[in-house]
């Protein structure tokens, strides 16, 4: 399997609504041929198709030591009893969650999931665990939540009058992953998951500890993935949300002007959920010599290929040359998949200092998306990955050179402590 395989190989994750993508076609189906999950028969057809596809294509034929046949026996009756499509897909997700694999995911027909422009159900609040409790990180300014008194930095106290800690514990117990850190991260980020059009009561505590509540409706939101480049004094600040061919090209085109007179670069990958592996290699080629091994991918049969830097595609851009400026990379738990490969390589080659927190540890690859009989979508991890040094990042992640964690005080004061550390390092060097 050669380099051309990369055009359909994409590394991705869904560490809760942060995300990247797969550029492969979905099998076309005539609506008249779709089965309905409103019937027991239809649910079992879709369930069996999903289970068998994972059975046949999953990169690890031993399923990490899990008895995959036993999972079918356990979850098939629950799928048959499910009350409607939403509950049925919850059953599928619980079964798939036992693989502890953020890449193997299932989407119902209503989700119409597009990796390049992710859609997701939200109440307008983005949450994350900070200092051991669920914290509001961002608020959609167009949402009903923005019209309440909730602010970034506030603590989520309860959901539908269930204490947040108890709510998360129940979610983890249902998935059987109560001790899995990645599952906990996803549970914290998915506190308000539920069908679009339904409501949820949210109670939060502000900076002074005063509690307030509001009933918020779930609705479909969408995130546009791209990049943001700006100068902060003598430092070029480059934020990449995902790796796509168009983003890589536009990113490279802006660099000559942005880097004029710059003395250092901060590459922000804290919200980067991965993307097209070849696009990531293009970005890597801006900072590394040609022929640098970015790692090896292998499927369950042992078929494998390596990814390398290759700058020729990029040097067609006027005034663009290999970047030699000092570099700092910012990471978080949301830094995933292809982004982790880039971080690991820059760190191993001593090309960059890594500041932030340990990355997701979600580094597998999908070859093709699978269309389910009801029009839903199943993504299955078909490739494992190891770095050029033979290190497996899945489940491990990349550890920063200098750890810096987010605090509530930082959120309230709108302080970017990680960027400040990067700036101080670059100015001192």
How many structural domains are formed by the residues? 3
CATH topology of the largest domain: 2-enoyl-CoA Hydratase, Chain A, domain 1
Structural class: alpha+beta
Helix content: 25-40%
Query: How far is it from the N-terminal to the C-terminal residue, by CA?
Result: 43 Å
In terms of topology, how is this protein built?
Layout: E1 10-11, H1 40-57, H2 68-81, H3 85-97, E2 105-107, E3 119-122, E4 125-130, E5 133-139, E6 155-159, E7 162-163, H4 164-175, H5 181-189, E8 199-205, E9 211-217, E10 219-222, E11 227-232, E12 235-240, H6 245-258, E13 264-268, E14 275-276, H7 277-287, E15 293-298, E16 304-308, E17 327-331, H8 338-348, E18 353-356, E19 365-366, E20 370-371, E21 377-379, E22 381-386, E23 402-403, H9 408-413, H10 417-428
Parallel strand pairs: 12-13, 13-17, 17-18, 18-23
Antiparallel strand pairs: 1-14, 1-19, 2-21, 3-10, 4-5, 6-7, 6-8, 8-9, 11-12, 15-16, 15-22, 19-22, 20-21
Helix pairs in contact: 1-2, 2-3, 6-7, 7-8
State the main characteristics.
429 residues, alpha+beta, Pdz3 Domain, 3 domains, six-stranded mixed beta sheet, 10 helices, 28% helix
Question: Can you walk me through this structure?
Answer:
- There is one protein chain.
- The chain is an alpha+beta fold.
- It contains ten helices and 23 strands.
- The strands form six sheets. The protein has a six-stranded antiparallel beta sheet.
- The N terminus is likely disordered.
